[in-house]
């Protein structure tokens, strides 16, 4: 329960702290969460498939833009944090649900550092949010998984998300 409250508080703080930038540039970034509204309790796989589909979605690459064909300049802390998350994903021995949850916790700590230390503004900042929102959701989903297969797929999607950072930011 504490993790859910903490995640909600951090996501709220992220959205509130960035509200001024969004209003200044007129761009509103939408976030979506994993919903259990349509969960069929009689089908144990329905929620699994919904969570997996949402947590492995990389459609953010269709929304993000380059800076006139060039990569956006990111602050050191953001790039450093992405590098640290990549190392965690590549080096973590994830063989149990508990180890996936531990990885999610470690990734969440680094992600919180990135959010807290972000000094970017303007279009580069807006595009960073396009990158970060799905990553935040994936980390949250990894921390809640109950299936090793789902966890492995979400971990792979997190790695793909992190690798995508280098396509758009420097």
UniProtKB/TrEMBL annotation:
Source organism, top-level taxon: Bacteria
PROSITE patterns cross-referenced by the UniProt entry: PROKAR_LIPOPROTEIN
Protein name: Lipoprotein
């Amino acid at each position: 329960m504490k993790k859910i409250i903490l995640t909600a508080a951090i996501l709220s703080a992220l959205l509130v702290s960035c509200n001024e930038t969004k209003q200044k540039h007129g761009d509103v970034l939408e976030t979506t969460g994993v919903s259990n509204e349509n969960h069929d309790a009689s089908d144990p796989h329905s929620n699994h498939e919904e969570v997996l589909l949402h947590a492995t979605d990389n459609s953010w690459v269709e929304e993000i833009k380059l800076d006139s064909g060039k990569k956006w300049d990111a602050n050191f802390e953001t790039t450093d944090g992405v590098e640290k998350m990549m190392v965690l994903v590549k080096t973590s021995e994830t063989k149990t649900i508990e180890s996936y949850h531990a990885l999610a916790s470690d990734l969440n700590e680094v992600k919180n550092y990135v959010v807290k230390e972000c000094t970017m503004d303007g279009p580069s900042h807006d595009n960073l949010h396009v990158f970060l929102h799905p990553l935040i959701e994936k980390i949250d989903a990894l921390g809640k998984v109950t299936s090793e297969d789902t966890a492995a797929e979400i971990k792979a999607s997190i790695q793909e998300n992190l690798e995508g950072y280098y396509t758009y930011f420097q």
